[in-house]
Amino acid sequence: MNKLRIGILGTGVINRDFHLVTLRNHPQAEVVAAANHRPESLKRLAADFNIPKTYTNFAEMAADPDIDAVINGLPNYLHAPVTIQMLEAGKHVLCEKPMALNVAEGEQLIAAAQRAKRKLMIAHMWRFDREIVWLRDVMASGQLGRIFKVKSHAIWLFDGPRPGSWFVTPEFAGGGALADMGIHSIDTLRFILGGARPVKVFAHAGTFFRDIPLDDTATAMIEFEGGVTGLIEAGWYHLYADGLEGYTQAYGTKGYARVLPAQLQTSIEGIWSVTQPEMPKRQQQCDLPMYQAQMDHFIDCILNDKEPSPGGEDGLWAMRVLEAAYRSAKTGEAVDVGWK
Ligand SMILES: NC(=O)c1ccc[n+]([C@@H]2O[C@H](COP(=O)([O-])OP(=O)(O)OC[C@H]3O[C@@H](n4cnc5c(N)ncnc54)[C@H](O)[C@@H]3O)[C@@H](O)[C@H]2O)c1
């Protein structure tokens, strides 16, 4: 195979501002096709990014033998059905988060990838952020001692989805700010804990800022195996947050570390010290380099037959926590995530 031939599903923000930018002049991949149900935005996207083929019918794109892999940047309700359709047609898939509307759909995605023997990667891009990777490494090195608490924020300040858009339509989105933003924090906590399994969730969710039928505010406490407590805050339209999306903290018996901005507090030769490790300057909150690293990993996994990380199972753990959190918010009870 020369260059990996990629098809783009959807013409929205995630493809236009992120995925397609990471694929521009990529040495190992080229975008050969794009699909969307709305022909107008499809035409504009193809013209702006020089994409030779367009499809308004996903089945036709799936049947195109000259596409090796696709990026599913469609609304959440189309993640499972279209990803399965593409896998069954022999394409590898990078699917946006959340991987599906619920756990049952997520399981179907994994089964489809296994049957088709194709790669399935879920776009939990914070795993590719330099600071988050640094935090994971600091925790794994033992410098912080035994980790007992981790926290992560996923709050969109001042703004959020437009009322009436698919993001705030329950059957299209599957959930509100917790599903859209909080899912990043859920995955980030599992990632920095080295893949620790979530055991139990207690959550609150509510709608305070706009007249929408989904949550714009959520807080969840997650018990991880080994007794580590995880806390996440998710929100849209908020006016204040202790930290923005990606702000993540780890508390250990010997030290503390956080990112955005990175800081390490620990004892060095018996002296308590606070250091701010040098990190590459961010151009924006959700910085392009992490999307680039995510795309490079997806391409590398296909070309060199490696298992993507985060793969389907990682996506499914996030879905399990999400589903348990919504159930908890509804019942007022702590909910088992489903792992014993
Ligand atoms: N990881 C990230 O940083 C990140 C950021 C933004 C979005 N996302 C994810 O990417 C996916 C797409 O988000 P987006 O911001 O690009 O969305 P968007 O609204 O900008 O684009 C959605 C695309 O899907 C098409 N579409 C199909 N059915 C639709 C429907 N019923 N209503 C509206 N549009 C429909 C639209 O025409 C458009 O091409 C979502 O799953 C979202 O969670 C991830």
What is the strand and helix layout of this fold?
Layout: E1 4-9, H1 13-23, E2 29-35, H2 39-49, E3 53-55, H3 58-62, E4 69-72, H4 79-88, E5 92-95, H5 103-116, E6 120-122, H6 130-141, E7 147-157, H7 170-173, H8 177-192, E8 198-206, E9 217-224, E10 229-238, E11 248-252, E12 255-259, E13 263-268, E14 271-275, H9 288-303, H10 312-331, E15 335-336
Parallel strand pairs: 1-2, 1-4, 2-3, 4-5, 5-6, 7-10
Antiparallel strand pairs: 7-11, 8-9, 8-15, 9-10, 11-12, 12-13, 13-14
Helix pairs in contact: 1-9, 4-5, 5-10, 8-10
Bound molecules: nicotinamide-adenine-dinucleotide.
Residues 10-14, 36-38, 41, 73-76, 96-97, 123, 125, 166, 172, 180, 286 line the site of nicotinamide-adenine-dinucleotide.
CATH superfamily of the largest domain: Dihydrodipicolinate Reductase, domain 2
Helix amount: 25-40%
Mean pLDDT: 96
- SS strand fraction: 25-35%
The string of secondary-structure elements, in order, is EHEHEHEHEHEHEHHEEEEEEEHHE
- Computed over alpha carbons, the radius of gyration is 20 Å
Structural class: alpha/beta
Number of discrete domains: 2
Can you list the strand order of the major beta sheet?
14-13-12-11-7-10-9-8-15
- Straight-line N-to-C gap: 43 Å
- What form results from the Cα inertia axes? globular
Query: What's the CATH architecture name of the largest domain?
Result: 2-Layer Sandwich
Oligomer: single chain
CATH topology of the largest domain: Dihydrodipicolinate Reductase, domain 2
The count of helical stretches stands at: 10
